Amino acid sequence: MTDSPHQQSGTYTTCLMDRRGEKVQQRDGSGKNGRNPWLAGNFTPIEKELISAPCTYTGTIPDEFAGGLYIRNGGNPVANDDLNRDAHWFDGDGMLSGVLFRRSQSTKIQPEFTNRFVLTDVYLSAKESPRLVKPILPSIATLVNPRESLISVLSSICRTFALVIRSHLPGSQQSIKKIGVANTAIYFHDGRALATCESGPPMRIRLPDLATAGWYNGRTAEGEGNHTIEKGPVFGGSGPLGWFREWVTAHPKVDPNTKELILYHNTFIPPFVNYSIVPSSHTAAMSDEPGQPTRMLNRPVPGIASAKLMHDFGVSRAYTVIMDLPLSLDPVNLVKTRHVVDYNPKDPSRFGVFPRYRPHDIQWFETNPCCIFHTANTWQTADANTVHMLCCRLTSAALIYAAGNIAAPKYDVPAELQEEDQCRLYYY
Fold first, then answer.
1. Is the distance from CB of 247 to CB of 198 less than 8 angstroms?
2. Most buried residue among 18, 196, 306, 328 by CB atoms closer than 10 A?
3. Tell me, what's the pLDDT at 230?
């Protein structure tokens, strides 16, 4: 970003520069004029992959770093010829970037950089289609933009359905069985590195080269020797709607003491949220409570009336906190002449608290409307009677729109619920 003086008024205007130092035209609220700034400058998608490229550095790398691997995940659209399309920070194919601190024979620590796409069905299908000028999945910016017509939104969704169906026809080399793009986070559990997003199950990643291994179903991952022979419940369960229910939160939690993987599945169909706990194969049974299962998959969480955009949750040593906030992600909204992603500041924020292994015992607490995309910590008092949570609280949905280069709509907020538009670390 570059600030330059406006000669006539003496005020300052802000412009976006691309990597060649050329000014990128900002788009108006309709999102249709000029190159999208989220596809230019520092946000320009990366096309080249590097494998174990030596890094230059200054100073001394501590010995404790030796053998360590730092990895980040983020969206990076591979079908990117249409630079004027809708784009959002939440869009894009998953790309992992990592730095391995390798000790050489001379005992010197040499950092090596690797970046690789996560080879999801959507990514592989896009690579197979050279005439594809924009991503297969609709942009969140399209789904949230109040200036987009109902026809435009439906057209974008129908295009995705058509491309998925076409991928299963004769002549296609890559069928799209799962629409997850694994572009949000990466975590480690039970010997597996797993990349996640909200539209599919986790994808196992090999370390340290960041190669894609295969989808993880809550028991095994594709490519593992026992993947086709191990029986038992998996994420999503069985039946034609199982592929909906296998979608997981992008931010599962791993308990450092019990080594359990704790997560929820957020879908468009009732009961809207299901809940799973996956134990580590290297520890004993997960619960000290008699009669509790050693693995819990797809348990319904009661009390949620519609599909919501849920990105994170809270987990303490004994309790889980689900957030039912007034930000919906629901195709049914189209029937109500609302957008698929829609914020309603007249609805309360609801927090559901339940003992870790008993989602059916959930208790709901209501407070002022807000958006929360990330929690920082969740803990309980010594007597386990009070649960505390620290999170990043937004007083509106402005971020959802700003992340798509869209002006946020004006909401009719009741006087008693009006707050300054801000994001702050908040304690509940």
1. yes
2. 196
3. 63
Residues 248-277: what's their mean pLDDT?
96
Q: Is the pLDDT of residue 7 over 50?
A: no
Question: For residue 161, what are its two tokens?
Answer: 């359905």
Q: Left (φ > 0), alpha (ψ -120 to 50) or beta: where does 304 sit? A: beta
